[in-house]
Write a structure and sequence with these properties.
Transmembrane segments: 29-56, 279-303, 323-349, 389-408
Order of helices and strands: HHHEHEEHHEEHEEEEHEHEHEHHHHHHHH
Subcellular location: Cell membrane
Shape: elongated
Protein name: Lipoprotein-releasing system permease protein
Family: Belongs to the ABC-4 integral membrane protein family. LolC/E subfamily.
Number of helices: 18
Structural class: alpha+beta
Oligomer: single chain
Keywords: Cell membrane, Lipoprotein, Membrane, Transmembrane, Transmembrane helix, Transport
Radius of gyration: 33 Å
Amino acid sequence: MSAEEAKRPFALFEWMMAFRYLRSRRREAFISIISWLSFFGIMLGVATLIIVMAVMNGFRSELLDKILGINGHLVIQPVDSDLTDYDAVAKRIEGVNGVSYVIPFVEGQVLASGSGGAVGALVRGMSRESLDKLKLVSNNVLQGNLEKFDEEEGIAIGSRLARSLGVVAGDHIKLISPKGAVTPMGVAPRIKSYPVKAIFEIGMSEYDSTFVFMPLQHAQLYFNHEGKVSAIEAYVEDPDMVGEMRASVEEAAGRPIFVTDWRFRNVTFFSALEVERNLMFIILTLIILVAALNIISGLIMLVKDKGHDIAILRTMGATRASIMRIFVITGAAIGFVGTMAGFILGLIVCLNIEAIRQFVSYITRTELFSPELYFLSKLPADMDVSETVSVLVIALLLSFLATLYPAWRAATLDPVEALRYE
């Protein structure tokens, strides 16, 4: 290699010296241990941050899909008078640009009783045509079918509710409503038995253990809503545009209504998720910062140990900038390899997160990620490209910054002082 080539920034000899310092010798074992700790610290920090953020993204995405898949993006409720003209109102709202479809429904709370016990449930009455539009229900029927949902007096219930009541498709359950027939003695509870025509599983425990779907005309009779509905749900093409569509929906309704959207109804829940997500990102980034500090301590010790070598390189013509680059490469290499290893580890875990959860649950004999607590029946993971790139950039940047001070110390080392007592 010529003298001119050796003087170029990041020349071959600088890389050779940097990687030579990365290889441990017996008398440098302690420095090597610190380097390995830095590597594993960065790897685990990056992997943990990627996994946690992916799980939280998946958790939010799955919840959003489930919540918006079973509940309307906009809910239109009557003001001053009952929704007796619901068919006409629904048709006008469905004609608004951006509205995919609308569902008039009757809703009420009941006590459901079966051979296995009694639990509270939420009955939602709607037509077969409307129920078919709810793909989370119509496409996830485990038992029975919805073929004659409108024609026969039957109901569809969630899988967890069916297990709680101890029933299967074809069995009967009793629904008890406190708002029944009006008698001279007051309002008598209404008790009626219905056959279970279908059992569905949405995948969100709260819904699977609560929802009962009933034909609209039967729900109107059961809840004393003859000729009217409780509200109308509107599903739009872009849920994030519901705020801009409110005025158009209110105008199309042609009558006094009160409109609420999905963001208003779930604002506390999704705000809490966003705050938790941001805090976890900050907290877990500190893991990478701690690993970067290990790089600083390791390089400082390496500089102290290699003072004699640095002095000889300086006397042979190596510039301060060249010495600085050697130690920057040494530290940055640890950070780069650790970051890439963390990315690969995080990617593997995210792709197999549910299998890992089931394996750990089997080994520990405990139920991790309980559906009753977390609402979802499986552990989701959704890696966001921009977020993952941000994690990698932060890790590489912290690793690079951690090398600057030790490299500067090495560059400013006086070769005369270093060789004085040699």
